[in-house]
Design goal:
With 157 residues, the chain is mainly α. It has a single domain (34-149), classed as Cytochrome c-like domain (Cytochrome Bc1 Complex, Chain D, domain 2, Orthogonal Bundle), CATH 1.10.760. 54% of the residues lie in helices and 0% in strands. Helix 4 (62-76) packs across helix 9 (138-149), helix 6 (100-108) packs across helix 7 and helix 7 (110-116) crosses helix 8 (118-127). Mean pLDDT is 82; it is low at 1-34.
Amino acid sequence: MRPTTFISSLFALLAIAACGGKSDAPAAATTAAAPASTLTPWQVEHGVGPITEPVELKAIDQHEVTEGKALFDQRCASCHKANERYVGPALGGVVGRRAPEYVMNMILAPDQMIQKHPEAKKLFGTYLIQMPNQGLTPEQARHVVEYLRTLPAPPAQ
């Protein structure tokens, strides 16, 4: 096993162990929530959380990119890389795959997203760790989205 794989696995196990007490309920039951049919069309496309209005993407703002990169490096880079799976998914090209509102809702309300949104539930099922709420403001999440817009999608495999 590669050292980075071992460290990532160890980190994931520690994070899972630190997140909860004992429960006799199966893990799937703790994240089960409303089916997708109870989500509005807006929520299906844009996620569940505080972002309920369209986010207009204009030309890339370098000031926001710089702010977003600093936040990403401080709060996100321990679990996410641009073009490789790590503790969480690769985020290069994510704004091309998901609406900016979805990305912001995932940043701002990961617990709600995992409980209610089918795509977020799939991510949880794949990575087996819930993204922690980093306590960012909507403005900070918007800066992170601006930074993520600059990351190209990983090469097809």
